[in-house]
Amino acid sequence: MYTIDLILRHVPMPVSIERKESAAAMAVYQQIQQAMASGTPTFLELTCDRQVGKKLTVLTSEIVAVQMADKDAPSSTISRGGFFAQLVQQTSN
User: Fold this and answer.
1) CA distance 70 to 74
2) InterPro entries under this entry?
3) How many C-beta atoms lie closer than 10 Å to residue 28's C-beta?
4) What CA–CA distance (Å, rounded) separates 68 from 60?
5) Contact yes or no for 16/84 (Cβ under 8 A)
6) How far apart are CA 89 and CA 84, in angstroms?
7) CA 42 from centre of chain
8) CA–CA–CA angle 10, 34, 89 (5° rounding)
9) What's this model's pTM, rounded to 2 decimal places?
10) Are the beta carbons of 46 and 30 closer than 8 angstroms?
11) Cα separation of 83 and 34, whole Å?
12) Residue by residue, what is the 3-state secondary structure of the chain?
């Protein structure tokens, strides 16, 4: 299972969706990256493979960062706190 975390402006915790397959997770990750890079605010609707029926709609101009991680990977290689801490450190410099 792959988790895609979105950090939104003025929201202290990430919002997440999950994909079962690596290719599907990478496709969503790239879709979010392209939406962020376009600079045109639009709504992006995402769904979750783990929680059927879960839908998430975000305004692309409010996305600050996106992270994709293998949820089944050993915890020593992935640190959600580290991602957020690095983001905070970069914005404070």
Assistant:
1) 9
2) UPF0367 (IPR020885)
3) 20
4) 17
5) no
6) 9
7) 16
8) 40
9) 0.75
10) no
11) 20
12) CEEEEEEECCCCCCEEEEECCHHHHHHHHHHHHHHHHHCCCCEEEEECCCCCCCEEEEEHHHEEEEEEEECCCCCCCCCHHHHHHHHHHHHHC
In whole angstroms, give the CA distance from residue 23 to residue 25.
5
| 52 burial type by CB count under 10 A (0-12 exposed, 13-18 middle, 19+ buried) | exposed
Residue at token pair 């995402």:
46
pLDDT tens per residue, range 34-65: 999 998 999 999 999 999 889 999 999 999 99
Here the tokens at position 1 are 């299972």
Cβ atoms of 17 and 52 closer than 8 Å:
no
